[in-house]
Amino acid sequence: MPILELRVLEGYTENDKSRMGHVLTDAIRMVVPAPPEAVTVMIHEMPHTSYMRGREHRVPAPALPDPVNVARTFLSAMEARDLEAAQKMLGPDFTMTFPGAPQMHSLDALIQWAAPRYRFVTKTYDGFDALQSPAEHAIVYCRGSLSGEWPDGTSFEGIRFIDRFEITAGLLTRQDVWNDIAEHKVKT
Amino acid sequence: MPILELRVLEGYTENDKSRMGHVLTDAIRMVVPAPPEAVTVMIHEMPHTSYMRGREHRVPAPALPDPVNVARTFLSAMEARDLEAAQKMLGPDFTMTFPGAPQMHSLDALIQWAAPRYRFVTKTYDGFDALQSPAEHAIVYCRGSLSGEWPDGTSFEGIRFIDRFEITAGLLTRQDVWNDIAEHKVKT
Amino acid sequence: MPILELRVLEGYTENDKSRMGHVLTDAIRMVVPAPPEAVTVMIHEMPHTSYMRGREHRVPAPALPDPVNVARTFLSAMEARDLEAAQKMLGPDFTMTFPGAPQMHSLDALIQWAAPRYRFVTKTYDGFDALQSPAEHAIVYCRGSLSGEWPDGTSFEGIRFIDRFEITAGLLTRQDVWNDIAEHKVKT
Amino acid sequence: MPILELRVLEGYTENDKSRMGHVLTDAIRMVVPAPPEAVTVMIHEMPHTSYMRGREHRVPAPALPDPVNVARTFLSAMEARDLEAAQKMLGPDFTMTFPGAPQMHSLDALIQWAAPRYRFVTKTYDGFDALQSPAEHAIVYCRGSLSGEWPDGTSFEGIRFIDRFEITAGLLTRQDVWNDIAEHKVKT
Amino acid sequence: MPILELRVLEGYTENDKSRMGHVLTDAIRMVVPAPPEAVTVMIHEMPHTSYMRGREHRVPAPALPDPVNVARTFLSAMEARDLEAAQKMLGPDFTMTFPGAPQMHSLDALIQWAAPRYRFVTKTYDGFDALQSPAEHAIVYCRGSLSGEWPDGTSFEGIRFIDRFEITAGLLTRQDVWNDIAEHKVKT
Amino acid sequence: MPILELRVLEGYTENDKSRMGHVLTDAIRMVVPAPPEAVTVMIHEMPHTSYMRGREHRVPAPALPDPVNVARTFLSAMEARDLEAAQKMLGPDFTMTFPGAPQMHSLDALIQWAAPRYRFVTKTYDGFDALQSPAEHAIVYCRGSLSGEWPDGTSFEGIRFIDRFEITAGLLTRQDVWNDIAEHKVKT
Lengths: 188, 188, 188, 188, 188, 188
What we know:
6 copies of one chain form a homohexamer.
Chain A: E1 3-9, H1 14-28, E2 40-46, E3 51-53, E4 56-57, H2 67-79, H3 83-88, E5 90-97, H4 107-114, E6 120-132, E7 138-149, E8 155-168, E9 171-179, H5 181-187
Parallel strand pairs in A: 1-2, 5-9
Antiparallel strand pairs in A: 3-4, 6-7, 7-8, 8-9
């Protein structure tokens, strides 16, 4: 115990079902102090011909992409300066908040703002955390350390950062960034 | 759909069961694109006399405290400088990482480190996010803005911050903090 | 087999649950050729604290009255000329259709229309049939034979009739009547 | 809520399962005041190798035909005077009761009785209602209006009628008819 | 896994439910190679107002006594020569088969037959095994060793025995006994 | 009632599932006084992609062989003196206890011990009883009568016997034998 049974319409992939099992196992453990080994999840897929609500059979909606994957893919595209790919991952009303910057709404604005600040930045990840909000968006946190080069060509590394993303229907709608760059500059 | 059925041993409070319903509803929505209204959760409590594993009846473990409440209570105690209360909420091997500070292990070290940095700080919260890791700890994020007074008596406000807590069995085992204090100092 | 399991919120009476069992047993037998003895119904009542949809606990709606009882009560009130009681059982937009009569909307209209046709009528019931429409109303049929007195004081009996009622939220919204009164008159 | 789960042996068609969903949705709504959208039906088909009663696997009985279809088919055959087809749909001990007629037991008797009454009759349907009795038979009501020609060649239309059928194992065992033909004759 | 769910009518004692859990856990392990710890049993008791078969609510039958207890009680009564108590535990058509004895039908016959064979016998039990036959009776085996006194007053001990009982509705209907008494006599 | 639902991982044969149905039907009848016809067993097989414990999908363990078949096969091999086949069916630490014999651990020892006792023995079976112990082994009882030839060539028959086997993971780990051979010798 606990034993979780999930009924969904048939049509999800094995990977989708593994993800369902993982999020449910983790979720219940936030309330019930059970080790993962004590949590059983059984997923019962209903053929749509065997399920009816409101006197009508229903079709399943395709699974949402893993929000951690969405965030990772976006971060990789940004790091590779593949702005076209990154741009396609943005939802309407996307906003970005970086330390010391005004709220920005486009990748171009970000690139322009960053230009005088560093030549390039590479992220090393310590971990990702993902959760679903009660609203429509999922939330992804990623944290780790930054390395790269300052505009004067000197290099830096080991600067802590954390990003928070809001992702709706697989598209990024918000990014908030915190890091120790200023702290680093104050020190040096 | 989806329909979630949870079987747990009898003995949880109404509030525990509401929390179970909430975390499960949110969790499945990270994979299945359903609005909350389409998610049904049914909790079946088994009297321990009706449940048996390994030929033995079992007793339920008490619910874990809401990790958001744990983090909030700790933050309030710290803000009120009630170090005794705050100290009681720390688990073994507690570590704290603040911007520009060495890793710290005690509240005393933190107080000492902060003394030359600000007279006091008050937090205004924009939001809390909580999730359970696959390991033993839950994770709580809280973000918002800092206001307070610098050592010279001038006041500040609107400085962005984010805290990340790891909470095991109701006790804090790790705190990581990011904020724009240095950014602020660089600017001023 | 078949085995039917019903999950409803807690709060229904024993009689409500017996009615649920009866209507479900009968319904499935319209498709599956099983004798009643082969049909099992299990009703699982969920405490509202254990049920959640859309992240909210829900309260059960009180059971609808048995539509056969509603029709019977109305017919008894009419037979007893207790127009006040009968009137209270009518829903908005109530319509009545009797053989050879224009569509009527009030009991007064009916009384007036019937006055020259018979002094009184008593119904002997052969049977009631009830079903729920896919729309909001339930449907009740009652059939049997009429006896009574013509305006000239001569008596009659054994005249076949059938009534069809539509009942919404316990109130009558439509009554259609067929009978052999004219047939009788043609003959005599 | 309510949530209905039905377990039957595997082997029913998609149409059978849709019918099961419909009759159960409608049935429970006769007691629980829920709109159809609030009623979920899940049909779990058991392979016969996974189901056992009395230490024996069982095979499913084929679904009964939709009684409304049975009644419609019979009425069409009668209207088309395809007596052979209509005759095949009659069960043993079939009885017919028409306004002003003695109880009849064969289609020939009906044809003979009707001959001096009208040349032909066509039915326009306002609706069908079907339900399963607690006994073996299903019940179908159909109502609407009659049009056709009297023996003298004059035509008629708009005469209200209602038929009640009892159907056992897909065969008609009883028909009761009410209509306003006599009422019409009285008036004209 | 495996996970067993049992639905029974409400009214069984805690001890009854423990026994149900034990027999089901053991039974499934005869087919599925799972240690007991991997077998979960959940017993769902249905209030009789929530259960219906054949359109009728049902009442639960009281649990059968533990057949091992029945056998033990009988053996104790026999050992204590409480023939009255033992006699009450016998069902109709009780038969006893002992090594070298004709089939017997009464305790008196047994006592008479045993008289010249030993003065008294005491049983030390190595174990009991119980199972339910597909027919009405349960079966209990008990084995161990006999000690006692021969008619000449010399004592014996350590003579192996095994008894097989058939128990129907809590009453003994058959006893078969094997032991090494003759083997012992041959040797001595 | 009772209604038993079993959830196991997918991958069992039809015969495995029939055996599961039989052992569960019999088991519950040891406690609940229901005839077999009142016991329903439904086996729900979970695809391993739909089942997760401890955040991991699981694979089913192959079913254990029917212990009665194991015992029968061993007895047949012994009767046919196919010692090689019989030997392969023995688990580690196999022990045999026969009337009047020291505990033996090998088939050779048994053959040697039996040589001066009878030329050959054939078993006629009256019945087999099988059950699973709470420990790892299943238990099989078989009883009936022995016929054969004594060392002097005279034949015998109708000598009662009972064997008790312990079977772990399909291998015999213990055999205990009781019979009336000595009783027979005493008499003759």
